[in-house]
Design a protein that fits this description.
about 230 residues; alpha/beta; Rossmann fold; 2 domains; six-stranded parallel β-sheet; two-stranded antiparallel sheet; 11 helices; about 15% strand
Length: about 230
């Protein structure tokens, strides 16, 4: 069955950790270790509500500021500083551009309702994707099977004709259980190796090149505002 579309995660794949100094600086100010600050921000109930659209991006940061003992101006500075830690992985972006020459490329991301604006205005990559599906606008987040069902419905393709790329094991596992081909993102060089059959003139081995969850390899450790 030929591959007809590719779907990429955002945070941890296209956007990667850059300079993490702001986590250290804010952690010192709040008397938290950087990892503890990241966990408070991205693994708690406030984030769970925001990524499913029950809180706007602004309300997420307002509530998080209150939880951390910050006023609104300080919470906005925290938001700005932490967004600055994300950078576009140019090697991944180049692979996306090569795929776009022959296939539609979509994005499926868990994020707040600020994602599209940030990708367009801050990172300048929104136009690389035929569609951006954002959990905050859908009301469901990965790895809920419902979000993958929605993706396939929007693509109007059977799962066997779609390749999904993500850095989180639970998301890759959920997509694979739907019958999609999957690539567990580890780093750009490995991604390029697995995509190589689709970057050439031929379709490549659809049963081998992309249909692997890399269960024997550790996944990415990136945590952040989008994934």
């Amino acid at each position: 069955m030929p591959i007809k579309a590719f779907v990429f995660d955002c945070g941890g794949v296209l956007l990667r950790d850059g300079d993490l100094t702001p986590y250290e600086q804010w952690g010192q100010r709040l008397r938290l270790e950087p990892d503890e600050l990241a966990a408070r921000l991205w693994q708690g109930e406030i984030w769970a509500q925001a990524e499913c659209g029950r809180l706007s991006d602004g309300e997420f940061w307002r509530q998080m500021g209150v939880a951390l003992g910050l006023d609104e101006a300080e919470a906005e500075r925290l938001r700005s500083d932490l967004w600055s830690t994300w950078v576009v992985d140019e090697r991944v972006l180049a692979l996306i551009d090569r795929l776009r020459e022959r296939h539609p490329v979509w994005m499926l991301s868990n994020a707040t309702d600020a994602l599209e604006e940030l990708l367009a205005e801050h990172y300048g990559v929104a136009d690389r994707f035929a569609r951006i599906l954002n959990s905050a606008r859908l009301g469901i987040a990965k790895p809920d099977p419902a979000i993958f069902e929605h993706l396939l419905d929007q693509l109007k393709l059977p799962p066997g004709e779609v390749v999904f790329v993500d850095d989180r094991a639970e998301n890759v596992t959920a997509a694979a259980s739907m019958g999609m081909h999957v690539i567990w993102y580890i780093h750009a060089a490995e991604l390029e190796r697995q995509l190589r059959p689709y970057l050439s003139n031929g379709q490549g081995d659809t049963q081998g090149a992309a249909n692997q969850s890399r269960a024997d390899t550790a996944g990415s450790e990136d945590d952040g505002a989008i994934d």
